[in-house]
Amino acid sequence: MAIERTFSMIKPDATKRNLTGAITKMLEDAGLRVVASKRVWMSRREAEGFYAVHKDRPFFGELVDTMTSGPTVVQVLEGENAILKNREIMGATNPEAAAEGTIRKTHALSIGENSVHGSDAPETAAQEIRYWFSDTEIVG
Ligand code: UDP
């Protein structure tokens, strides 16, 4: 299996509860390496652009409100099978359905405040990394 890169976010509900280190440790313990990281307080325009795929969904307004309610830590993670591995350690979107030991089961508050984001496929990973990072900010 080739080394892959994926895009991850530690969402405002988690940064507000001072969980950046705890969540990053769970990612690192799963074998993922943080090769880029920065803290951003995203604007509504940035949140709407990032989540444009969901713009017609009923939860879109609430999603943008939540994502702009505090700082987010955006990261690039690298490792074997990184995209799938990150999705596994994140757990299901709704924390009530997430498996024991996952980030969302351990830390998420609700489906809207579910602590982390992770790309779901190679195409979205490349697109999401490019949305937040320039090449020189990624140090493998
Ligand atoms: N979301 C929500 N309500 C829903 C579905 C999704 O608030 O009914 C939010 C939630 O924060 C989720 C994000 O929208 O993480 C993106 O949804 P997606 O289905 O892509 O889930 P994910 O890939 O984050 O597990």
SSE layout and pairing:
Blueprint: E1 3-10, H1 12-16, H2 20-29, E2 33-40, H3 44-50, H4 60-67, E3 72-80, H5 82-90, H6 103-107, E4 116-118, H7 122-132
Antiparallel strand pairs: 1-3, 1-4, 2-3
The protein binds uridine-5'-diphosphate.
Order of helices and strands: EHHEHHEHHEH
State the share of residues found in helices, binned by percent: 25-40%
Distance between the amino and carboxyl termini: 18 Å
Task: Classify the beta-strand content into a percent band.
Answer: 15-25%
Rg calc: 14 Å
Unreliable sequence segments: none
Structural class: alpha+beta
Query: How do the strands line up in the largest sheet?
Result: 2-3-1-4
Contiguous helical run count:
7
Hetero groups in this structure are: uridine-5'-diphosphate
Largest sheet at a glance?
4 strands, antiparallel
Average pLDDT over all residues: 98
EC number: 2.7.4.6
Family: Belongs to the NDK family.
GO molecular function: ATP binding; metal ion binding; nucleoside diphosphate kinase activity
Catalytic activity: a 2'-deoxyribonucleoside 5'-diphosphate + ATP = a 2'-deoxyribonucleoside 5'-triphosphate + ADP; a ribonucleoside 5'-diphosphate + ATP = a ribonucleoside 5'-triphosphate + ADP
